[in-house]
Write a structure and sequence with these properties.
With about 280 residues, this protein is of the alpha/beta class. Helices cover about 30% and strands about 35% of the residues. It has 2 domains: about 70 residues, Lrp/AsnC effector binding domain/regulation of amino acid metabolism (RAM) domain (Alpha-Beta Plaits, 2-Layer Sandwich), CATH 3.30.70; about 160 residues, 3-Layer(aba) Sandwich (Rossmann fold), CATH 3.40.50. The longest helix has 14 residues.
């Protein structure tokens, strides 16, 4: 299937870029890349006139407080992987981890190596949120045995968790092609403890975990907090990212209502990650 690449420029960028990403996600866009003036958004082209839907959704929020313009182009599916390969450079996390693709030279890679073929999935490590989540895992004295990776994308966090000592990892994503990509990448890295499933938060009902990883977006994270708390063992840890620094207080307050206590906040540029524990 072809993809729609949407280039959106918005001034001032903050806080409107975050609102923009949320609206685009509701329209079916699946991955986002920050730019200095806005965002790039990618989504599957369907019979729905996405361009008119975007106008109705975003421009309906017309305000004198911001100016917005956008342009779109179709990326044929056969060119998608070539686009990834052209842009995908190895990512280092503090010399302790290197995320790279099969076509990269591994001779200069530092620390733990996670090899992924991104395909159409989110989570190459280039985005600030994936980088922070990787750092949070690397900073743990010991990674527990039972882990949930919610919104797994490429599976990079699930794979890293296993390389750091996790034995049973449930990786869930609402996109079936992300699940297939996670399975492929797990096999590529020799990860045998990862079970990748297609679905949503209901898949964790009745299951318990020592560590939950969730790199999604603020609204989804808030709606999932109750289920995360119910599935997290007492003393267990919840790592969240996919939101901006300005969202931390709101999420921390919502988490407090679910017996989740904020322990640490990580920041990278305008993005944030939170580490919480179950009371």
């Amino acid at each position: 299937m072809d993809y729609l690449e949407l280039t959106v420029n918005i001034q001032p960028r903050e806080p409107w870029a975050e609102i923009l990403v949320s609206q685009l996600a509701e329209l079916g866009f699946e991955s986002f890349v920050d730019t200095e003036t806005g965002v790039l958004a990618y989504g599957q082209v369907t019979e729905i006139d996405l361009e008119n839907a975007i106008k109705e959704s975003i421009l309906a929020s017309d305000s004198e407080e911001f100016e917005l313009d956008f342009e779109s182009k179709i990326i044929p599916q056969q060119n998608w992987n070539a686009l990834w390969e052209a842009d995908f450079q190895p990512v280092e996390v503090e010399d302790r981890m290197t995320i790279l693709a099969p076509f990269h030279d591994k001779s200069n890679a530092k620390g733990i190596i996670v090899e992924i073929q991104p395909q159409m999935s989110f989570g190459t490590g280039h985005h600030q949120t994936t980088w922070m989540m990787s750092k949070a895992l690397l900073d743990l004295p010991e990674v527990p045995k039972n882990v949930l990776d919610m919104g797994t994308g490429t599976g990079v966090l699930a794979i890293l968790a296993e390389k750091l000592g996790a034995e049973n990892i449930l990786a869930i994503d609402i996109e079936d092609w992300s699940v297939e990509n996670t399975k492929e990448n797990a096999s590529r890295n020799g990860a045998k403890g990862i079970v990748a499933l297609h679905g949503d938060i209901d898949l964790i009902e009745g299951k318990t975990f020592d560590l939950i990883l969730a790199n999604i977006n603020k609204n989804i994270l808030k709606s999932h907090l109750n289920q995360y708390s119910n599935s997290l063992l007492s003393g267990g840890m919840l790592m969240l990212s996919g939101f901006f620094e300005t969202d931390v207080d709101e999420l921390a307050e919502a988490a407090k209502n679910e017996n989740l206590t904020l322990q640490k906040v990580l920041n990278k540029e305008t993005w944030a990650a939170m580490i919480l524990t179950k009371d």
